């Protein structure tokens, strides 16, 4: 997934990217477990045009691991 936010305004331009890898295990046709791993990144195309706070926020974006159980009845 890729999103280029506000490319015409250098001070507010950000690029967001996400790669996802997932696994599913079906215990029964109505019960399953889903495990997803997301590799996320935030880029600042024009670092000279932003404040240190914006750089700090962009550096705080991290990867995510999600575990989900689906039980239908």
UniProtKB/TrEMBL annotation:
What organism is recorded for this protein? Answer: Acidithiobacillus ferrivorans
**What protein name is recorded for this chain?**
Porin
Q: What is the lineage of its organism?
A: Bacteria, Pseudomonadati, Pseudomonadota, Acidithiobacillia, Acidithiobacillales
């Amino acid at each position: 997934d890729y999103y280029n936010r506000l490319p015409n305004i250098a001070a507010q331009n950000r690029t967001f990217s996400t790669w996802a890898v997932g696994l599913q295990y079906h215990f029964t046709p109505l019960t399953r477990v889903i495990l997803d791993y997301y590799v996320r990144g935030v880029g600042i195309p024009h670092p000279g045009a932003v404040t240190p706070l914006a750089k700090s926020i962009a550096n705080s974006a991290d990867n995510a691991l999600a575990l989900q159980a689906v039980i239908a009845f």
